[in-house]
Amino acid sequence: MPTHTYLCLHRAKPISPGQNSTITIHYEAKISLPSTINDSFSGGLSDIPSAYLKYTSADKYWEVNDVTIRSLSQNLTKNEGSVLNKVRSIYNYTIERISYDDAKFQAILRGEPAERYGAVKTLALGRGVCEDISDLFTTLCRASGIPAIVVSGPIYSKDGEVTSADCHAWTEVYIPGYGWLDVDPTWKLFGRLEGRHIADRLSKNSSQPDYIGWVVYQSFSYELKRNVKLLTGEVTYGPDLSISADYTGRAQVGSTVTLKLTVKNYGNGTAYSSNVTVSTSDNLRLQNASAYSFSDIRSYDTRTITLVANATAVGSDSFTVNLEYGLEGGRTSKRTFTYYVNTTKISGMATCNIAPDYIEAFKDASLDYSITPAYSTNVAVTIVRPDGSVFEVRNLATEGSFTIHFMPDVSGLWTVRMDVPESTACGPIHEDRSFSVHKTSVEISASSSTSESGIVTRGHTTPNTARPINITLVYTLPNGTALTKEVTTDTQGGFVDLLSGVKAEGNLTVAIFWSGDGAYLPSNATFITELKGTFDETFVIGVAIIVIVAIAAVILLVKRRGQPRREGV
Fold first, then answer.
1. What is the rounded distance in angstroms from the CA atom of residue 197 to the CA atom of residue 379?
2. Entry pTM
3. How far is it, in rounded angstroms, from Cα 199 to Cα 207?
4. Which of 47, 207, 345, 510 has the least C-beta neighbours within 10 A?
5. Residue 428 burial (C-beta neighbours within 10 Å; 0-12, 13-18, 19+)
6. How far apart (Å, rounded) are the C-alpha atoms in residues 240 and 268?
7. Is the alpha carbon torsion for 140, 90, 78, 279 positive or negative?
8. Quick one: 204 and 111 in the same domain?
9. For 135-150, how does the pLDDT look when each residue is reduced to its tens digit (9 = 90+)?
10. Do 386 and 287 share a structural domain?
């Protein structure tokens, strides 16, 4: 950023309406190009001198505190560590989203009133002239705590006259360790201008620059001519090659890193022979060629190289790019550029699909897991009942996907937890899922038949409850009398009941009930059996007593006969 500025004050006689006045200004300008910017200037916000923080404040056309501006700026820069990369992110957004307002520019040339948009309106419109675009870029930088000012002045196009149409605006931002960096988002120039920008106005705030140049927005006719004479005797002709990189400085283990290099000749001569060699640190494995050669890179021409490398381990890694090109007299120029990559552990994630959609207790269910990205690891899966008790724990090895089959034993809201331990390549993964288990419907089937012993009822439950359950049977006799009995199923779900001593004919109604439990819904069944007569229970008991008494009498008689007789005295 220039440290001194000069203002020429011209006094002229009064100009009457309709008269013209010509003012001729002669410049002698020495244009010098700063050193090339590269990623070695990796200072952060804390490295910015406090004296420059005044260039981060808000102003009339630089609405730093606007909610939209500040949110956008923070989102663009929050993942970037260095100030240089933060500026690059803002620059890339600006050149991609903001177009040039040619209609406004033509209106300015005609001397028509033209509103200066400022940052907020330029962002909303998505267009603007060079000053509007520079206002937006400057404001976004300031909103992230990066010192920035707008610079304007004529653009040199040839050794001769420069008209008012050649006035231009761009931005300077402060990069720790480098200094003030020229960025022209209108012409899409980052770090190195083309040697034609001549600054004659520094806008440290948006409404009052150091001094006023000749760009006007008022509606009156004017003509401006500048004579710019370059000090050609001090100009060195020759190529000036530099490399810029487009890449993401973050990677995960196992991922690929793409580094797009742009080789540009900022000089005023042709580079007839240029060589680029690439090397990487141990944890980056280059997948393509490491050496490239170019011929005839003319002034402002570019060449591109796309490098792809695999990140194999956690750590701070780097690409080292060596550039060598020939100068006049057989001399060579060598430059080295370093681009850093921070490789972190894999941020894995797991997904779980639970089938079927409607899960019932004591029926098969499955958990289908998929880990992204897939890699070899051990996992622990814990299935938890609604009451918090552990139903099952599975420990298994996987290559990224696996399925677990299980049969829940109670209804309610279940939870399944999957844990993957941290490894050298991947951070820990924890995945919780909840799912509902519904009570299962049970069907009871049964039938009755008569026998000499009484009424026999046989039945079973479907599905098998896999454990004994108590079932209630209610027999309703033809005369309306109801008899209730309890029966317990066996392990196969079957049951048998005998109702003895019933002497009746007609329809017997049998109703079967089960109240259900935590896994099964209540169930019931009713059917009718025709009775054709059975033994009366009282009669059977009477007969049994008579038989028993008769047997006892016989036994007693036998005993008496076996005793010796007594003789009379």
1. 62
2. 0.41
3. 17
4. 207
5. exposed
6. 8
7. negative
8. yes
9. 999 999 999 999 999 9
10. no
